[in-house]
Amino acid sequence: MESSKILLVWTSPISDAVAQLFNNVSVKLSELIECITNNIMATDLFHLIIPLDSLQKLIEDPVYHFPQIQYIDVYFDDLDDPFGKQLYLTVLHDHRIKFHSIRDLPQRLCKIICDNAVVAISDSLCREIVYALSSSIEDRIGAKSASMLLRHCKTSKQFPLADLRGFPVKNIDEVHSDFKCTSCQLVFEQLYRLECGHRKCSICVKVRTKCAVCSITITPNRISVGDNSRQTTMKDEQAVCSNCDWSGSLGVYYQEHFKVKHQDLWTCFVQTSDCSNHAWEFNSKYSTTTLLDGTGIWRISDVDTLKKNPKKAIYSSPFYLFPGGYRACLKLYLNGNGQARHTHTSAFLVLIPGDYDEHLRWPFQYQVTFTLLGHISDKYNVSTSFLPDKTSSSCQRPLNTMNIPHGVVSCFSLDTLGKYRHHHVQDDTIYIKLQVNFCAEMPFASLMLGVNESCDDEENEIEKTVSKLLDDLLCATMKNTT
Fold first, then answer.
1. Is the Cβ–Cβ distance between 358 and 423 less than 8 Å?
2. In this entry, which stretches build a coiled coil (predicted)?
């Protein structure tokens, strides 16, 4: 009798090298159930690894109660529906079931394979599993994001998603309305059409509450994509480059010109500010940079000097995450903050009042990724992502100078930074890349333990003290008036 079988349900393509590490890899839950049924008399133990959207069907099937099923790992991603929260509470008593973020799954699978001795697994093979599954995970989340947008659109016809990246042009007022977003004023090949007839890009559809032209409320199920009646194409439009003297067709020629000549504009650089460590004293003398699509790079110099002051926090200059979008800055403790002090670098996103806040959706709820860039090769990049907690005050519309910082306390290991210093530090400078994914939102906070944290330092204590003093003052004033 075979002692154990590891069965995986994975709907995206997966390499043969990784698939052969499992006893069975199924595309559908029904295939996994059939495999269990056929092998139930010859197997002592089953270890199941399934997606969250398959758990309900598994619970309803008789095989769920088979004593041979002793472990069930359930993975979820950023786009899973909120029904998972209720499902989680339903099965909370079942000690066999463990929940994992899909981004933690590769490392989890390596451990499962090692523990069950399906095959002798080396460090190189473990890395192969991580790389193969990581690529497949991105494909899965991308496909799911596209599917969700399709469900929210009025038309049921399949269509390609609009490119998240728009192109700035100097003569935007002369460009046909079919190709320019009325909110961010960037040019796109494909735009979403609101019920009022005006057009927006995929980011503005997600984050804005009203049409920028007529102020009609945006209703997701009344958004359509594509317009068969369109009489013009991008190649018929003329463009003047926003950053040089180039002019020509707005179609592929301008897009290629912009990508080649102005690639740095995709990832705008933000500088370091010299503001103090207190949030309400944030220095406003810096002009606000505007990122094109939520991607920017923070250049941090004098790294050795900063490391000598373990409690020192530094801020970036302020920036808008995209034209007409959220305003924010970054905060970094190079030697860590709170429990991560002396072990990890702590990185936070800080929301700041902006000119467009009244038109944006609140709370802020989109996936944020910090990447410590390797200057020699991309393979030395180190990334950490988090999804903001929508219930936190850090993610609400900022009313004061800035919100409480929100991010990852244990972001980059100081051991790794020291060991591979020559890969990450050049001329006493490091580069941290920020990416905000406006297609990934927090579905339910209770399952995502430890994925986002607030800054734990003295300025938060000061803010709490100030808040209490204001409350006491208000109470005293009310007593005096009565």
1. no
2. none
pLDDT in tens, 375-389: 887 888 888 888 888
How many whole angstroms from its chain centre is CA 357?
Answer: 20
CATH classification of the domain holding 200: 3.30.40.10
| Pair 317, 429 in one domain | yes
Q: Measure the CA–CA gap between 129 and 139, rounded to whole angstroms.
A: 15
Q: Which helix (H) or strand (E) holds 70?
A: strand 69-76
CA distance 307 to 336: 10
Amino acid at 291: L
Count of the separate structural domains present in the chain: 3
Helix (H) or strand (E) holding 320: strand 319-320
Three-point CA angle 398, 401, 403, nearest 5°: 45
Instruction: Report the pLDDT value the prediction gives residue 255, as an integer from 0 to 100.
Output: 79
Spatial distance between the Cα atoms of 202 and 186, rounded to a whole number of angstroms: 12
Q: Residue 29: what residue type?
A: L
* Per-residue model confidence as pLDDT tens digits over 270-324: 878 765 444 434 444 445 788 988 999 999 999 988 888 877 899 998 999 999 9
| pLDDT tens digits for range 124-140 | 555 555 555 555 555 55
- Please identify which residue in the block is written with the tokens 């009489």: 231
How far, in Å, CA of 217 to CA of 200, rounded? 13
Degrees (nearest 5) of the Cα angle 94, 100, 101?
Answer: 150
Asked whether residue 199 falls in the same domain as residue 134, the answer is no
Instruction: Evaluate whether residue 295 is within a structural domain.
Output: yes
Residue 398 contacts residue 351 (beta carbons within 8 Å): yes
**pTM greater than 0.85 (yes/no):** no
- Asked if residue 154 is part of any domain, the answer here is no
Find the helix packing angle between 105-116 and 123-152, rounded to 10°: 140
219/431 Cα distance (integer angstroms): 39
Instruction: Determine which of 101-105, 269-273, 359-363 has the lowest per-residue pLDDT on average.
Output: 101-105
The whole-chain average pLDDT of the chain stands at 76
The sheet carrying 69-76 orders its strands as 24-26, 2-9, 43-51, 69-76, 97-101
Most confident among 4-8, 218-222, 251-255 (mean pLDDT): 4-8
